[in-house]
Amino acid sequence: LALAPTTGIISGTPTTVGTYTFSVTVTDPTGTSPQQAFSITVAAQPITFLYTYLPEATEGASYRADIGVNGGTTPYTFSLVSGTLPSGLTLDSISGTVSGTPTKGTAGTYTFTIRVTDSSTPPLSAQQTYNFVIKKGFYDSVISIDSTLAAGETTVYVDGRQVAKLRGGQTTRQSFPVATKATITV
């Protein structure tokens, strides 16, 4: 910040948070020079979240999304203050990254709140609630042997690999990632 000597205007862009005291002396045409003390407090820019949503995830697929923030003083600390992350995902408390692989059966919508706290004194914090969607990433194929085939066993193969031996009336369930093809033979 700078003080313009002819107008008395303080202007500029503060770069360091803190409270600053200074005195200004004004000399008028008669030579009188009164002095006045002033104090200016420069506060950190409030923390704001860059995104109010997270991209969708898919069960069984690797996922990574950064919780972006502006303002405050780095480094930041991120924490989950309400709700839960789906199984297979974690929040990195230093980088603010949500990452991992959502496990099978986690498809659905999750609501959770993330808080970020900066390193200023006193610390600033902000929080953002997310509605997070995980899409289904697997499909099940059910293979059944009719009960009229009571004698003997039937071998079930998926892509040439044996996965089950079934007798008449028995069933097996095989799960496959969405967007994959599997050849099932008996």
The string of secondary-structure elements, in order, is EEEEEEEEEEEEEEEEEE
Radius of gyration, whole Å? 32 Å
Number of helices: 0
Largest sheet: 4 strands, mixed
Mean pLDDT: 88
Strand order of the largest sheet: 6-13-12-9
Number of strands: 18
Shape: rod-shaped
Tell me about this structure:
By secondary structure, the chain is mainly β. Helices cover 0% and strands 49% of the residues. The chain has no helices and 18 strands. The protein has strands at 2-3, 10-11, 18-25, 35-42, 48-49, 57-58, 63-66, 69-70, 77-82, 89-91, 97-100, 108-117, 125-135, 138-144, 154-158, 161-166, 171-177, 184-185. The strands form seven sheets. The protein has a four-stranded mixed beta sheet, with no helix packed on it. It has a three-stranded antiparallel beta sheet with strand order 7-11-10, with no helix packed on it. A three-stranded antiparallel beta sheet has the order 16-15-18, with no helix packed on it. The protein is rod-shaped and about 120 Å long. The model has no long low-confidence stretch (mean pLDDT 88).
List the helices and strands and how they pair.
Layout: E1 2-3, E2 10-11, E3 18-25, E4 35-42, E5 48-49, E6 57-58, E7 63-66, E8 69-70, E9 77-82, E10 89-91, E11 97-100, E12 108-117, E13 125-135, E14 138-144, E15 154-158, E16 161-166, E17 171-177, E18 184-185
Parallel strand pairs: 6-13
Antiparallel strand pairs: 1-2, 3-4, 5-8, 7-11, 9-12, 10-11, 12-13, 14-17, 15-16, 15-18
